[in-house]
Every structure is written in structure tokens, then in C-alpha cells.
Write a structure and sequence with these properties.
With 57 residues, this protein is mostly helical. The chain has four helices and no strands.
């Protein structure tokens, strides 16, 4: 798990609307599992860090 994986997960979600729906349906308890299944294992904290880094660009 890492911020780099979270950045990859964000890119995957941008390109895949079904993944967006899957993460919403899974809820916070299953966030790590859904990210791992997508091939970009990350924690919610990693994800937030990636979003914050993206805001700086």
C-alpha cells in the first residue's frame, strides 16, 4: 500500500465508472479490498494523501 498505488487507483476510477460505483457501494469498510482487487492496493489515508498531492498540481 502506498500513495503511488492510490494515485494509480484514482486514475483507474477516472477511466472506469463501474469501479466508481463499486467503491461507493462497498463503503469505507471495504475500501482496501476494492482497491486491492483493482490492482492498486491502498488505504483510505493513502488515497487522501494522493488527492491532496493532486490539488497542489
Amino acid at each position: 500500500m502506498s500513495v503511488e498505488n492510490a494515485e494509480r487507483f484514482i486514475r483507474f476510477m477516472k477511466d472506469d465508472e463501474s469501479l466508481q460505483q463499486k467503491i461507493k457501494a462497498a463503503g469505507p469498510e471495504q475500501f482496501e479490498q476494492v482497491s486491492a482487487e483493482a490492482g492498486a492496493s491502498c488505504t483510505a489515508y493513502d488515497f487522501v494523501c494522493a488527492v491532496v498531492d493532486g490539488l497542489k498540481k
